[in-house]
Write a structure and sequence with these properties.
By secondary structure, this protein is α+β, with helices and mostly antiparallel strands. It is about 25% helix and about 30% strand.
Amino acid sequence: MRYTILTALTLLFFTAGFSQNDSVKKVKYTPEFQFSPGLYLNFNQVRDNKPIPSIRIISNDSPFDFSFFKNLVKNKTIGYFDEFGAQQEVKTDAIWGYCQDGKIYIQYNGEFNRVPIIGHVCHFIADVTVMETRYDPYYSDPYNSYYNSGYYNSGYYSPYYSRPYNRTVKRNEMGQYLLDFESGKIMEFNRESVKILLMQDSELYDEFMKIKKRKQDDLLFFFLRRLNEKNPVMIPVR
């Protein structure tokens, strides 16, 4: 029998009489803070520190295994019990992410990446698929070469005829991204994004804008850290 069916039903039975006494307080986030482990369907669950715990997730694996969530998100769909005890199912590519060992992992571009910097503005690194058009002077396309080379009208055809050709290829490259912990919005990590975020603090924004543009790029992390220090995130704990 699956681990989670027994543990989830036990949890629901046990907590039914105590849900009304559940108290919530908020604490200031620090690097030592441990988020509650579980599955995030959306960003609100991240901000509320209230994911779906592993014991309510339907799986053949033990919910107490360290690699439980890492293996779970390899599935196309995930089944779980909601807070009312009803069985639900969600597509894996539709969830926000998960928390394992107190660390947050966000789904971006189909991959799950750890968010190492948490604060008013979070920072993470992820691979992104880039479409690139390349010019290949030696590319050989017999079909197109035949109809576009002029040989078509002459009645001559050579499968070895080649012509310059632009090819579109996919490649993955590493990118840096920012997550606004208030809105859940994700932005590329660049000067323009940092400027928008700094507008939330007029003092920091004015200071940043007085710096010459060629030096602003070198100070992006510095100003984000100061923004986080001046505007600490308060995390609910139960």
